[in-house]
Design a protein that fits this description.
The complex is a heterodimer.
Chain A: E1 2-4, H1 5-8, H2 18-27, E2 31-38, E3 56-66, E4 74-79, E5 86-90, E6 110-114, E7 119-121, E8 130-132, E9 136-138, E10 141-143, E11 146-147, H3 150-153, H4 175-179, E12 181-187, H5 198-209, E13 222-226, E14 231-235, E15 243-250, H6 259-267, H7 275-287, E16 292-295, H8 296-306, E17 312-317, E18 324-326, E19 332-334, E20 341-343, E21 348-351, E22 355-356, E23 369-375, H9 378-388, H10 393-398, H11 405-421, E24 425-428, E25 431-433, E26 443-445, H12 447-454, H13 460-468, E27 473-476, E28 481-484, H14 495-506, H15 527-541, E29 545-546, E30 552-553, H16 555-559, E31 587-588, H17 593-603, E32 610-620, E33 629-639, H18 658-671, E34 677-681, E35 687-697, E36 700-708, H19 710-715, E37 724-730, H20 731-737, E38 753-762, H21 767-778, E39 782-791, E40 800-809, H22 818-836, E41 839-840
Parallel strand pairs in A: 13-24, 14-17, 29-32
Antiparallel strand pairs in A: 1-12, 2-12, 3-4, 3-6, 4-5, 6-11, 7-8, 9-10, 15-23, 15-24, 15-25, 16-23, 17-20, 18-19, 20-21, 21-22, 26-28, 27-28, 30-31, 32-33, 33-37, 34-35, 35-36, 36-37, 38-40, 38-41, 39-40
Chain B: H1 2-19, H2 23-33, H3 39-45, H4 55-91, H5 110-124, E1 128-129, E2 135-137, H6 138-141, E3 167-169, H7 175-184, E4 189-198, E5 210-220, H8 225-240, E6 246-253, E7 256-265, E8 282-291, H9 293-299, E9 307-313, H10 315-323, H11 330-333, H12 336-339
Parallel strand pairs in B: 1-4
Antiparallel strand pairs in B: 2-3, 4-5, 5-9, 6-7, 7-8, 8-9
The chains are: A alpha+beta, B alpha+beta.
Bound molecules: zinc ion.
Zinc ion (ZN) binds at residues 266, 268-269, 273-274, 276-277, 281 of chain B.
């Protein structure tokens, strides 16, 4: 909402600077997002033209004389408040009618007048180009001053003629003082639609600065025929259309609206059209009531079909099935069943409160106008606007709630302006159909409630004064106040709403800042979150970079994880958007891995080495087709060289492989004290056969780990020759396994004995199985068994492999003898021989 | 005669020593001079050929010569070793300006880092973390929060609807308010509700379809707007610095009444006005207000007895302001060149 200060001043005295006013309004909830200064200093745009107070003044045109040598130029004699009159050469067409009329002083013809040296915009150049006025010879006459057009002042693009100021001025007054202005751009939040008008803002300004509001004149002089012979109103839907006011203005003249009205409309961001349309817009901007003008004679001709000689019958109703309407923007709408229509018995005429129809719209030949000012249910208006995809100034206001009381005021105001400026005659009487008058119920307010919610200590008298400044009717009943909202408000329903008004008027900046004195609630930890965050920290310590991806994806993107079977990562249905904004983001993800791999592909363009993880939800549609299961997952990816190449590092680099990521997972599990992590060879279409493991904890599956299947690497477009290792783990299973506490073992004070053994076993025997046998056979004295070498090839026979282990034997309570160690070692070897057919390599 | 010879040997050895420039020549010199078969040692042995009257003088001189040569040798040894070490070190110096070898360091995503900071501050202030679901019902996301269907206030949130009627992606973490209240009623509440939210918006440098939000909720028997201001001012001081000015201005949210917006003095221009703060000197940081009576009632609390405040803030927006990030798309783009700066 654009609020020109000059317009605002019609209704309230401004007692502060523009900037202070903007700050006050902002704090009170009318956020001033921008101040546009017109001709006066202020703001941050240093390029903008500021009118020179000495060199740009009001001049009175005293006479227009012919130019001795040029037909297209005239000489204007101007009094600009200087010692003598100035003669100016000009070609302005709007001065030619005054040519040779002698003394014009009685006409009081004023115009902005620039003296030599003044800075203006160049009227002959596109856009706003500054120039300094210099004296020059114009067809033999030296010309050092200029009468200005709107374009030269930067008010509009108008450069046809010079700007004529309406009203009476003192010659020599700085133009700044006459036309200088500032426009406040105010962000209208949904609950203050009452402020989507200049009067609405003025009312707030008055209350905030202790001034009096001067309302516009709502009287109308009615001299035409009785209106109830001309029009009658009915409705089917008093809930949706609580009030409908109609007036008829006869004999309007289609012409431009007065200069001051055009200027105001332009400053407020509206383009002037003609006097009838402009008045309609002007009244809406001025006091907030949108109104609509119909071509009366069009309706009259139709009335003669259904009620010859009788009044026009305006009826509001819901559409019939299949009914359509072409609005004045030329679009034909299929009408939803809840959109209320203004109709006559022949056809629908307009979308009530939103936009007029093209048929009954006023046009160049319209002389008689039917003026509508009505009230509409705001929720239904918004619903219709969304369904019809229409935006209009009227709809914007009605969808935020315009009180029915405003309809009558708006109708009278518009009619009176049409009488004054469009030359119309207003029919006598008003058709005011008001089937559903809202009831403002009284609300009880106490000082205690203001203190309880607002946190401010205010006396009853003070509260009363603050509310009355906003025109609330306040009745002091001794220990409480009874408050009734003013007619223009629809947003006050309960005492808490009143507390907000008290706070706003008192000033949010003056409310004290206190510490809560209320009881502290029982303190609970969020164990799930704590554990997740701990896992994040541990993975970071292990060198992993956290990634956060979009949770919206597509089934096709995720199907790339399963390129062979072309399926989705989970059989349950996707949560799918009904209104996706891009084809890339349509469903809630089933997997973290797919998005993580996309991030790998993107980063691979400039980075070889990546170690990523993400923790977050996946979404599986719920059993009853209602809310989905949101399940926590952890995905990890590694690819690239072991370490980034450095200065001296042309060392042969090995790539990160399966065991690097497995090591991270093992380290993680040991850090969160979950024992029993195991990997078993398995197959999964995402991973490379033979390099895929199902991860288990105590036989319960917790996820998958593997080198990506080369086809997966390919479809994700991950470049480079490095293998890509990935895992996706189920935190829903893992998090509850994390013990709340754990115990440490004592560190033995007795020496450990180290023994190495090297075995030859069949190639296909998993190392985990070997270790399992060693652990069991080693008994409690075997502290640690560590695989340090895996070897195949000469001299090991084909189909076999050699595994070498460091064994650490240690007793918690004595020094081990050689004999005991030997016995333990022999037991291990024997079990390996018996169970796996292993032989000792160096035996 | 012998004494002369001794003095000659002494002088010659001393000269040779001065000329010895390497450890090897020094070693050879020592062997040839003071070693078992060295010149001086051999002279010493000839003391027996001297008459008894000459022996004391010769003996004394021999000891002097040995001692002096030994000392001279030690001195020369230090000199030569030092020179040799210096030469060696001069030869195998490093170009210290070459880059170091970096081991890979893991990092938390900047959104997580900001969330952690918010958690920590609110945790210190007695607010616990309460999480709720991303995919919500229209009822919890809107209706129970005093935003009826078709209400114009719904224009504040552009919503992703799912193909299941009445199921949407939450537009804010506010539905968690109702979940928390229904779980804890009638206990007092102080929680923050973090989580991912979704808005039907074009993805641009300034707007995302997915973003984190942290909502806060306090419910009790004596909580007022002054408590709201005091608590949020505390938060702002700890988050943005003790000296940073803040201001509260009236606003509108359907689930709070009175409603407010908290602005923090722009940290990029210190309040002088810049492009980021649109030359106002202020940055909008969070929306807040006293919990609307209808919302309290929907949560199970009697609004005549209980009151409370709520607020909502955007971690990514805060991170953008703190770190001077100009494009919100960097967060979920996960470009390592961005992430590695945290
Ligand atoms: Zn700034």
């Amino acid at each position: 909402m654009r609020v020109p200060l000059s317009w605002l001043k019609d209704y309230v005295d401004i007692t502060t600077s523009i900037e202070e006013l903007a700050e006050k309004l902002t704090i009170a909830g009318l956020e001033v997002t921008e101040i546009d200064y017109v001709g006066i200093p202020g703001g941050r745009d240093l390029e903008r033209l500021v009118w020179d107070r000495d060199k740009l003044v009001v001049g009175q045109i005293l006479e227009v004389k012919p130019h001795p040598d040029a037909d297209r130029l005239v000489l204007a004699v101007v009094d600009y408040g200087g010692d003598e009159e100035e003669i100016v050469v000009t070609g302005a067409p709007n001065l030619f009618p005054y040519l040779g009329q002698g003394d014009l002083s009685r006409l009081e013809l004023y115009s902005p007048f620039a003296l030599e040296g003044a800075t203006l915009y160049d009227g002959h150049q596109e856009g706003q180009v500054k120039m300094k006025l210099k004296g020059r010879q114009l067809r033999g006459i030296y010309n050092r001053c200029m009468l200005c057009s709107e374009k030269e002042l930067g008010i509009s693009d108008e450069h046809e003629g010079i700007m004529i100021l309406q009203g009476k001025y003192q010659s020599g007054t700085p133009v700044q003082d006459v036309l200088g202005d500032a426009v406040l751009e105010i962000d209208i939040i949904p609950n203050i639609a009452r402020c989507a008008s200049i009067v609405g803002v003025a009312r707030e300004v008055a209350a905030l600065t202790g001034q009096k509001l001067r309302e516009p004149n709502y009287e109308v002089l009615q001299e035409g025929p009785p209106v109830n012979k001309l029009v009658r109103i009915t409705t089917d839907e008093p809930e949706l259309n609580p009030r409908f006011v109609a007036l008829v203005i006869e004999g309007v003249e289609q012409k431009p609206s007065p200069e001051w009205m055009q200027r105001r409309l332009r400053l407020a961001g509206q383009r002037p059209i003609n006097v009838v349309v402009d008045i309609s817009n002007y009244v809406m901007l001025e006091m907030g009531q949108p109104n609509h003008t119909f071509d009366y004679d069009f309706l009259r001709r139709r009335a003669d079909q259904y009620d010859p000689g009788g009044p026009i019958h305006i009826h509001t109703r819901l559409p019939e099935k299949g009914e359509r309407l072409t609005t004045l923007d030329g679009i034909t709408h299929e009408l939803p069943p809840f959109t209320i229509l203004v109709t006559d018995p022949v056809n629908p005429l307009s979308l009530g409160g939103i936009m007029g129809g093209v048929d009954s719209e006023i046009n160049d030949r319209t002389t008689n106008v039917l003026l509508e000012a009505a009230a509409w249910n705001f929720i239904n208006i918004r619903r219709s606007m969304v369904a019809l995809k229409i935006n209009s100034e009227a709809g914007f206001r009605f969808s935020r709630g315009v009180h029915p009381s405003q309809a009558l005021l708006g109708a009278k105001r518009a009619a009176e302006l049409m009488r004054l400026y469009a030359g119309g005659t207003v029919a006598q009487g008003i058709v005011d159909y008001y089937p559903n008058k809202p009831w403002q119920s009284p609300i009880v307010l106490t000082t205690a409630e203001v203190k309880r919610i607002g946190g401010i200590d205010l006396s009853q008298v003070e509260i009363k004064r603050l509310l009355e400044s906003l025109e609330f009717k306040v009745d002091d009943r001794g220990d409480h106040l009874v408050v009734v909202s003013p007619d223009h408000r629809m947003d006050i329903e309960q005492s808490q709403d009143l507390v907000e008004e008290v706070c706003r008027m008192y000033g949010y900046d003056r409310i004290p800042e206190t510490e809560m004195s209320d009881t502290l609630p029982p303190q609970r930890s969020n164990i799930g979150l704590d554990r997740e965050e701990n896992i994040k920290d541990l993975l970071v310590q292990l060198g992993m970079q956290e990634i956060i991806t979009y949770r919206l994806t597509t089934p096709e993107k995720e199907a790339r994880l399963l390129p062979v079977i072309k399926s989705q990562p989970d059989d349950r249905p996707y949560i799918t958007l009904a209104n996706p904004i891009t084809v890339e983001r349509v469903t809630m993800r089933h997997s973290l891995l797919a998005s993580l791999l996309d991030i790998v592909a993107v980063n691979r363009r400039f980075q070889e080495r990546m170690t990523f993880f993400e923790i977050g939800q996946i979404y599986l549609a719920g059993e009853e087709g209602l809310l989905p299961d949101e399940l926590q997952r952890l995905a990890l990816v590694m690819t690239g060289p072991h370490i980034d190449p450095a200065c001296d590092g042309d060392r042969e680099q090995e790539g990160l492989n399966f065991f690097d990521l497995k090591g991270v997972i093992e380290d993680l599990f040991s850090a969160i004290h979950i024992s029993g992590l195991a990997a078993e060879a398995a197959s999964h279409p995402t991973f490379r056969p033979g390099r895929t493991a199902r991860l288990l904890v105590n036989d319960r599956q917790i996820g998958w780990l593997g080198e990506l299947h080369p086809l997966v690497v390919e479809v994700f477009g991950i470049h480079g020759d490095w293998p890509v290792i990935a895992a996706e783990l189920d935190l829903e299973v893992i998090l509850p396994l994390i013990p709340d506490e754990f115990q440490v073992r004592a560190v033995s004070a007795y020496p450990a004995v180290l023994e190495d053994i090297a075995l030859i076993v069949d190639r296909g025997i998993p190392a985990a199985e070997v270790l399992n046998i060693i652990d069991k056979a080693g008994g409690y004295l075997l502290q640690k068994a560590e695989l340090f070498d895996v070897y195949e090839g000469n001299p090991i026979p084909r189909g076999k492999k050699s595994l070498a282990y460091h064994l650490t034997f240690q007793s918690p309570d004595k020094t081990l003898t050689d004999r005991v160690v030997r016995k333990n070692r022999e037991r291990i070897v024997k079990q390996l021989e018996r169970q796996l057919g292993a032989t000792l390599r160096d035996a | 005669m012998m004494l002369e010879q001794l003095n000659d040997t002494y002088q010659r050895s001393l000269d040779q020593l001065q000329n010895a420039r390497t450890s090897e020549t020094l070693e050879t010199w020592y062997r040839q001079t003071l070693g078992r078969k060295g010149d001086v040692t051999q002279l010493t042995r000839q003391v027996g050929y001297l008459g008894p009257e000459d022996r004391p003088a010769f003996g004394k001189r021999v000891n002097e010569v040995k001692k002096e040569l030994e000392a001279a040798y030690q001195q020369q040894l230090v000199k030569v070793r030092t020179a040799e070490l210096e030469a060696k070190m001069a030869a195998d110096g490093l170009d210290v300006t070459l880059p170091g070898r970096r081991y890979s360091r893991g990092r938390l995503h900047p959104a997580t880092q900001t969330l952690r900071e918010i958690y920590r501050i609110w945790g210190d202030m007695g607010f616990q973390i309460y999480r709720s679901r991303d995919v919500e019902t229209d009822e919890f996301n809107f209706e129970l929060l005093n935003i009826p269907e078709h209400h114009p206030a719904r224009d504040l949130w552009d919503t992703f609807h799912t193909t299941e009627p009445g199921i949407i992606l939450r537009t804010h973490t506010s539905p968690g308010q109702i979940h928390a209240m229904r779980e804890y009623c009638p206990e007092p509440i102080r929680v923050i509700l973090p989580g991912m939210c979704y808005r039907y918006e074009q993805i641009t440098a300034r707007s995302e379809i997915q973003f984190n939000q942290v909502e806060g909720l306090a419910v009790g028997k004596s909580i007022s707007m002054a408590d709201l201001k005091g608590t949020l001012a505390d938060f702002a001081k700890r988050m943005f610095g003790e000296e940073r000015k803040i201001r509260f201005r009236a606003s509108y949210f359907p689930f709070t009444e009175p409603s407010a917006e908290m602005d923090v003095e722009c940290m990029l221009c210190n309040g002088d006005g810049c492009q980021v703060c649109q030359y106002t000197g202020w940055l909008e940081i969070l929306g807040c207000g006293m919990v609307h009576p209808t919302v309290l009632r929907n949560g199970g609390y009697d609004p005549a007895v209980y009151s409370g405040f709520a607020f909502g803030l955007g971690p990514e927006r805060i991170a953008m302001l703190k770190y001077g990030i100009e494009d919100i798309r960097l967060f979920w783009g996960n470009d390592l060149r961005f992430l590695e700066q945290f």
